Amino acid sequence: MSVWAYLAATLGVGVGACVRFSLGWLDRPKTFPWPTILANLLGSALLGAVLALSDGGALSPGVTFALGTGVAGGLSTFSSLAVDALVLWRDGRRTAATAYLAGTLVLGLASAAAGFAVADALA
Question: What Å distances lie between residue 84 and 88, 94, 116, CA to CA?
């Protein structure tokens, strides 16, 4: 992997993180972690698409690294998922916490599959 690929991935992380931060403004005041769900679903769809395009030879390893590890990695966030679920649980909203965790997992898998399918069909 070239130095340029690492630089591109680093910049991609910044882009993904800025998008994730911007999504947080969609839910003010914060009542449920919708921005985190949206960020994780978008990141999953992007990573699925990157995988399909990479498998099909449409993306070089460097671009795959920059988009997958960089942008998708910066956009999605496991730590926020964990903390949001903990806060819901601690606040006595156990059903919401459980639905949040299960829903994110199921919808994340579906988003990754959809991203893969769309990119595969377009490639």
Answer: 6, 12, 28
Evaluate if pTM is beyond 0.70: yes
C-beta atoms surrounding 6 within 10 Å? 15
Q: Show Cβ contacts of residue 115 under 8 Å, excluding neighbours closer than 6 positions.
A: 44, 45, 46, 47, 48, 49, 52
Structure tokens at 50: 């990157």
CB 50 within 8 A of CB 12: no
End-to-end CA gap in the chain = 24
60 known member of a binding site: no
The response to whether 76 counts as a known ligand-binding position is yes
Q: Could you report the average pLDDT of every consecutive run of 10 residues in the chain (123 residues)?
A: 93 96 83 92 97 95 96 94 96 97 98 98 91
State the residue for tokens 């399909």. 52
